[in-house]
Amino acid sequence: MKRVVITGMGAITPIGLNVEEYWDGLKNGKTGFGEITQFDTTEYKAKLAASVKGFDAKEYMDFKSAKRMELFSQYAVAAAKEAFAQSGIDMEKEDPYRVGCSVGSGVGSLQAIEREHKKLLEKGPSRINLLLVPLMITNMATGNISIQLGLKGKSINVVTACATGTHSIGEAYRTIQCGDADVMVAGGTEACITPICISGFSSLTALSFSEDPARCSIPFDKERNGFVIGEGSGIMVLEEYEHAVNRGANILAEIVGYGATSDAYHITSPAEDGMGAAMAMTKAMEEAGVSTQDIRYINAHGTSTHHNDLFETRAIRKVFGEQADKLMVNSTKSMIGHLLGAAGAVEAIACILQMNHSYIHQTVGYRVPDEECDLNYVTEHGVEADIRYAMSNSLAFGGHNATLIFKKTV
């Protein structure tokens, strides 16, 4: 199997519009939470979200292209262009059919659906936007990236709810491993701070109804009461190792393990014993050829819901045993909220940034210990630490579990 490395990264997040700003926010404990401004929340229980601030699509693409994309696609194209630029890939020197794209979105454009449904009810079917379908469907992030960058290889759209970003990277990794591509642009994107989305998750009692930005997304804290929806995109350029070396690329990290399982238990709740998540972590470690002693850091799914944080803690303990007490575990969602289909991708980027800067960011907002969530969640402040491997977990509605392991190369 071929080795796979990362040569470029791009990010649009609630705490920064590029990777440099994102890292600055992470290391300084910046949070992106604030009042929802996309619509009037007077009748809604959830009042807060983690919105992207200051994004202007025209800074990343021409006006006509921007008009033909919904926000989730715009975020993806912007992040992909940053990642591609960092990678230094010159498409004039590449076989375009060996360069592909694997970028997923959990829900696509709910904005387009809401907007056109209102028009349907008020003005009739003849007034529906002729571009409604290509604006709203989730695969258009991959499609638009491929068009913008000239990628003619495998183009796929993995949709596994909150595990979408991690699975998208994992499947791109597999694509290169087996020789179907030399380069894959991979990650996730989401922009769904909309009335129907907030209402739906509120009905599930999955969202935090806190109106305090400092106490809304508090993973592993005993007073946690739900997640906060975020938005943005995380994109990586994955490349076959020899291909990267031959063109003199700057290698940021290597992907060495990928595990994917299903709880086969419940449509919204993780398995209570954490076995599905535990097996994803185990499979990833087996592929990476590492032991529990080799893993010192885990970027947890850590949503700030009661069940997720408890059952993920159980899963980590199941896999690591006594070694679990020596781990550093944090949740990036404590600063940027839950980006749903983009979560795993922006968190994977956080893993690589932390490895390469030898610094583990704080789980921000944590105050009240929970006796059942008893790991080291890096709660007081960030920690300087030289780590060789980073593990990133994503767990999703439907029972989808995905784990990636990254190896430091710089």
Q: How would you explain this protein's 3D organization?
A:
The chain is α/β, with parallel strands linked by helices. The protein has 13 helices and 14 strands. The strands form 3 sheets. A 10-stranded mixed sheet has the order 5-4-6-7-1-8-14-13-9-10, with helices on both faces. Strands 2-3 form a two-stranded antiparallel ribbon. The protein is globular and about 65 Å long. The two termini are 22 Å apart.
Q: How would you briefly describe this protein structure?
A:
The protein has about 400 residues and is an alpha/beta fold. The protein is built from 13 helices and 14 strands. Helix 7 packs across helix 13 (about 345-355).
List the helices and strands and how they pair.
Layout: E1 4-12, H1 19-27, E2 33-35, E3 48-50, H2 63-67, H3 71-87, E4 99-104, H4 110-123, H5 132-136, H6 140-149, E5 155-156, H7 164-177, E6 183-190, H8 195-203, E7 232-240, H9 241-246, E8 253-262, H10 275-288, E9 297-299, H11 306-320, E10 328-330, H12 333-336, H13 343-357, E11 359-360, E12 383-384, E13 389-396, E14 400-408
Parallel strand pairs: 4-5, 4-6, 9-10, 9-13
Antiparallel strand pairs: 1-7, 1-8, 2-3, 6-7, 8-14, 11-12, 13-14
Helix pairs in contact: 3-6, 7-13, 10-11
